[in-house]
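Go through this fold for my students:
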Amino acid sequence: MTYDNVFKSYDIRGLAPQEITEELAYMIGNALAQRNNLATCIVGRDARTTSPELLEAVIQGLVDAGVDVTNIGLCSTPQIKWVVGETGSEAGIMVSASHNPPEYNGFKILEKGGLALGTRNGLWELKEYTTPRKTTPGSVTETSYLKAFVAHAQRILAASDREVFVDPSGGVGGPEIQELAEQGDYNFTLYNHELDPTFSVHSPNPLDPDATHAAQEYCKVHNCIGVVLDADADRIVFVDEDGGVVPADFLGAWLIKQRGLTRAAATVRDSQAVQDEIRATQGTYHLVEVGHVFVQNAVYEHDLDIGVEKSGHLFLKESYCAENHLMTLLYVLKALENKRLADEIAPYKDTYLVSEEHNYRVRDKQEVLTAAQELFAKDELLLIDGVRASGEGWWVSVRASNTEPLMRLTWEARTQEHYNTLKQQLADFIMPFIAESGK
């Protein structure tokens, strides 16, 4: 059986148990042990129905290769990244399909320091280790790091009387939020916080409008802020007191300003607001490819304070350069004091007019990228993830999907007139390349 179709750019993911099988799980554990010559590995899982069996198969693959395994059980992706970094373990494997629907599952692979493994740093090499290594078996230790992980975050802010509506989407962020509430003195209104392997209340992706609906309605009525997590809690989306969803890149820019940070990374489709806040401090800024692997690695490699991605991933230096939903929430509460989040974010929404990502099915992705370079040849170009053209107060991103014949177009401007001009320019540009099936 071939597993090529489940190896993605940032992780391994597919339908379970049809594509993500126990056989594959064993192979992943054993292959990582061989590739990295492992002696130790941390493993954990999300709450999906298929996760327990997949985790056991991963453990068996590692143990057969002689690896000493620490099983931390149910955990978030931020937690396992923190544990790998905190313990000095050589690697980690998280069984999770992140924000995908319940019928999916997969694996997120971590190297020393909790850094995510992607295609650029060796993820697909695991496919080459088709012959299992069997040697003197390693050991398995079951240990919970829940309290330690939460305590690490709780040092930021021990108490706050500001009401926060918290929706972990039925995922593994729920126990962590409840533990945070027990360790500190917070005013959390919990919703959909019990573990729900089927995500019956709403989608486990906080970027889906239905996922934030309950938070938006509650926050409007109660004049409070809200947060919605995805299934493995590495995405966090804030809702303001007016019921508005706060774009993660705007939130990141605001946190940079409030915390006085001077070193940051963001992706080619994130708002210029992030870069402008760093420029105001005469700090260091890096634009990177879209994808949590690229942002986390940039924060680590360049010793940055924060990494921002509009998909809801926010990367913090003090959490091993990884996402940390608990720390992010507490940093926001600490920075707000007596202010309203809606008022704090409003200037960004007024100044930076950012489009949604528009996807077009095309005949030839490379043909589109070549044409985009020609169209914007006189502008400042960055070619690390498709074509990103920019000028004073505007930018355009033309990116190719990694897995589909799609082009993804995003743009930003400072005025509605310029925004509309870019919108029309890009619509006219992409039209000749669209496949018969259309947008």
